[in-house]
Amino acid sequence: MPEIEEKIREHLHFLNLQDDPQKALLELLKSEYEKRLAHYENMDQAFRKKYKMSFGLFERNNVVRERGFSWEVESDSMDWEQAIDGIKTMNSRIEEIDALSQEI
User: Fold this and answer.
1) What dihedral angle (degrees, nearest 10) is formed by the CA atoms of 8, 5, 28, 32?
2) Which ranges of 1-104 would DSSP assign to H, the alpha helix?
3) Block means of pLDDT (10 residues each) for the chain, length 104 residues?
4) For the chain, is the Cβ count within 10 Å smaller at the N or the C terminus?
5) Which are the contacts of 98, defined by CB distance < 8 A and separation ≥ 6?
6) Residue 48's pLDDT is what?
7) CB-side exposure of 101: number of CA atoms within 13 Å?
8) Looking at residue 16, what is its pLDDT?
9) What is the Rg, in whole angstroms, of the alpha carbon atoms belonging to the chain?
């Protein structure tokens, strides 16, 4: 096991992460959540541009029904909703990681 731990430390050092494995793990987790957040935010922006409105307005205006329940619009609606939920979830997870980082 000590060999494995040393190899892990080498990798953490190579990536300029914390020497403390717990802190390094938190950094890695936060980085992954931030990547996912960026992905969801990009999806949200693409749909905002495509439909020229926010998701809330998209739903309030019942755009899916308005456009005849087409496959494209229904699919966009589901993907957009997933992006909005993803943004909320990733922000929540990042806050949790930040709080844990303060405790260490």
Assistant:
1) 70
2) 2-14, 21-51, 55-60, 63-66, 71-103
3) 82 82 92 98 98 98 98 98 98 97 90
4) N
5) 30
6) 98
7) 15
8) 85
9) 20
- Where do we find the tokens 């997870």? 93
- The CA distances from residue 102 to 19, 34, 75, 87, 99, in Å, are 16, 18, 41, 23, 5
pLDDT of residue 11: 87
Tell me the three state secondary structure of residue 16: coil
Q: What is residue 89's predicted lDDT score, i.e. its pLDDT?
A: 98
User: Which two three-digit tokens encode residue 22?
Assistant: 């717990």
> Is 31 within 8 Å of 90 (Cβ atoms)?
no
